[in-house]
User: Fold these one by one.
Assistant:
Number 1:
Amino acid sequence: MAASMIETCSVADLERLELDLLLDAVKTRYGYDFHDYAKASMIRRVKKYMEQAGINHISELIPLFLHDNRAFYRFVKSLSVVVTEMFRDPDVFKTLREEVIPVLKTYPFIKIWHAGCASGQEVYSMAIMLEEEGILDRCQIYATDFNDDALKLAKKGIYPAEDIELYENNYSLSGGKNKLSDYWVSLYDSIKVNSRLSERVTFANHNLVTDGVFGEMHLVMCRNVLIYFNEQLQDRALTLINDSLCPRGFLCIGRRENLKFSQIRNHLEDVSNRFRIYRKLSS
């Protein structure tokens, strides 16, 4: 019977078993718990890493990670998807400008958290919008990610010049009031955002999976991060974010994400469900 069970075990079943063993080893050795990441997404990321490392089976990563912490941390960095752009989803930024910014203007001081900021383009997009609305000097923006390499890129604020056309189009559609080129200086084949914008931004390492509440924020931007988590981990992250919001604070998540299953749904009202913008209830 044992032989029969082995024969009927599919490749997918073996991969899931190998993945569970790998994640157990990682948790024991390093304290990182990735069990609640979406399995399909995790397997894709692991396989991509395996291709780069010339490894054929997931289980081969176990001794590698146990004995080579540099290899493990390269893998951790690969889990953070650094794919973003300035004013990504312009309609979302336009709605923030029209529906959220007027409320933020009523506060004497404003705290904003970009959770999972990646390489920082959306953080600087927010800073540009706040500058145009005349409240950047009253704002403190916290930009966090668990990928230190991405944070280094974000702090530098240097991006390929080849992306300028896309950024300018997004900016125009988002309701931009000036020329986007007013907010950067041109280098050889790159652009660098003005220091005026970065002065109001604090970059820090923070992991939504393992770390705690991040202050009382008036607005939390957490876009296209939750799609890589399973429902249990999404709910944990959303609960942490909700606890980080001040009463009547705002939350903006990604267009492909939703709050339907989360226990925080009853604590938020819609500003724009279409664009995934919500506001915390008073109690």
Number 2:
Amino acid sequence: MTDAQLARQSWRRLEPVHGMIYFVPEAAERYAALGLDARAGYFASRSAAFGAASPELVIATFYNFCPELVRKALPAAWDVVTPAQMIEARYEAAGAALRRGGVHEVPGLAETTALARRAAERACEHPQGRALFAAHATLPWPSDPLLELWHAQTLLREFRGDGHVAALLAEGIGPLEALVLHGATGTTPTVFLKVSRAWPAEEWLAAEESLRGRGLLAGDELTREGRALRQRVEDRTDELALPAYAALSDDELARLAELARAFGRRVVDAGLLSIGG
């Protein structure tokens, strides 16, 4: 059996390599050059693997964004750019930002990429029920070793993310309730979640009241039941991610977790995860 804790550790440590694409100026600059603002660029670039995705498809698969925010960006973005242009711009931005941060200089790039790619390719054998992942799995592997690592982690991130949505749905947690519960953990500032997901204030307050009524929130904090639910969701998300990491032996998975630490740390230390990083 694959070690769920090691798999989670490997994903979490390497996740900054992918996640920086949502914060670095290289992305916004390339989207702007194509005629899109940063927010429209985000929705168009992440969904471009679907083709000219409808707002309904993005609302369904991205899960926790206010639907009206998505509809402001799509389908209008596809009148300005093609999905192929957005995919190319995203890869260009990822490569430029990672090189600016010196991530290509971290020792062990080839070994880390090889291990992460094996896990990502195993994930590609299990696309069922994972629409956002499956769309990205159709994209060709980059020849650039640094972008190969970025693409591998992108696949692992979307594979895990689709599983996380399934876990939330199984617990009866809607998109806005998921955000409120996430904010209550203190791991991500609630103000950031409110601004980036753009739900109306009255709907946010209604979600809080609903969660209090279910005994999951007391004031702004998770109750014991709320913490237990969050843990169930995280544990189930970990379990659903395991098919990818089953490609690696326990020793290889431990090695990936060890190597990933330096790559994630370089991204963080270079400021690539900062707003406007």
Number 3:
Amino acid sequence: MTRRERVLFGLGRRGWTKDSVAGGAAAAVPRGLRVYAVGDVHGRLDLLDRLLATVADDAASAPELVKYLVFLGDYVDRGPESAGVIDRLAAGPPPGFGAVHLKGNHEQALIQFLDDVSVGPGWLKFGGRETLASYGVPPPPATAPREVLGVIQRQLSARLPDTHRRFLADLRPYVAIGDYLFVHAGIRPGVPLADQGERDFLWIRKDFLDSDEDLGAVVVHGHTIREAPEVRHNRIGIDTGAYASNRLTCLVLEGTERRFLST
């Protein structure tokens, strides 16, 4: 990240604090920056390509701005083209954009399966079958024994390109930009950011979703499906269930302004 980007992202400030958006001040991203945050893709390469084309058209209206894409995780599982989605993202952002890729719980499960077959049954139940198929690995029966899962693990490992491995290894747990914190699932209320655990970043629901307290930033997240973007004073949820609804949602942030793009 360049020095200019560090300044634009607000990384030169003292950091993310409980007082960052206190007192009713409108949350903002730094001047000169436009952020496009993209919700859970889940193997829908068709929707991702369509949304990126829409984003590119939108960005053309402001050539003077620095543009960043923030992907909130869950690129794999459920939809038919998990391998294609990772291939597209690993190739880098569109011309004129920077990009940050966050880790979702589904990427965590895929990564864990490559090292530990015991997570296989759980992963297969919530989307891993579709990911295996996208890499040309026949999904096993739900009751497959450990020996069969070991064969599947080795087949997937052999078919996973090095570029995909590096992409998965480089995924970030969160990123803070101005008065916004971007994370896959959410954060645990009342816990300093430095003390948060990865499980909460990737899996939390009720305690985070039900919280009305100041979280120290406006948290932009996916993970929990809603029919439309959910905007509250302390968080913005943008997982609109793309794999089933055909609606992949993008939150656009510039200064104190917010708007949405969607397929």
Number 4:
Amino acid sequence: MHRLNKNQILIAGCGDVGSQLGLNLIAQGHQVFGLRRNINQLPVGIQGIAADLSQPDTLQALPQPIDTVFYIVSAGRRDQAVYQQAYSQGLQNLLDALQQQSIKPRQLFFISSTAVYHQQHDEWVDETSATIPDNFSGQIMLEAENIALHSGIAATVVRFSGIYGPGRNYMLGQVNRGVGYPAEPPRYSNRIHRDDCVGVLTHLHNLSHQQALLPLYLASDDNPAPLHEVSDWLAQQLGVEITERSARRTIGSKRCNNTRLKQSGYRFRYPDYHAGYPQLIQAFKR
């Protein structure tokens, strides 16, 4: 295996995905700094930086040098001002702080979302597809992607589809209450397991030491599936009956193509929901 030199890595917005990523990178011999407002929840081994990306004056003591920056923030709630602050403004604040402290990372990863796609009629989308989002979340995410890609740092945007995994039990809870999704009209959904989010970012980080990365990767598993198929399968696994079908919380209907990511050499640990959900179902039943 290609042995990497030990590097200092900054994970801004070091939540669930960031913390697991940090542990992976520490296991490879890197030194990892996790930046977040509350550093008490960081796993042992990740060095905490207590800072608020919306407050530039808290970003004045960044480690030097930094080889790689991962920007993996979560808005917390669906509010336009909060999104603006978390994504485009927060990223710009961090980039400004790096520049002011003469820190020049080799690589920047901005973690984005498939919310940037506007397609909603079962179309396949990939990295070349048009993005004309009509909602503020997609528009702000696209704005932040452009800030990253024009930052002057070698930057790669990774667009995750719907993340599921430990602690993300919305659909399991809904189905367990007997609520599924209607079969008509079919609504395609796309997902990626939390462990594959971590795996993708670890893979791309390692790859970035061997070759220049492309500016954009779409990260979603192999199997876009209609929501009613997923909910019906989950009901079967949970041993419950669907007694109500509701279309709430469904946005559009598109199918994500992960060919570029797989061509880069990534192999999914959980290529579809049949592989990813059994462990979650066992934990949910306990």
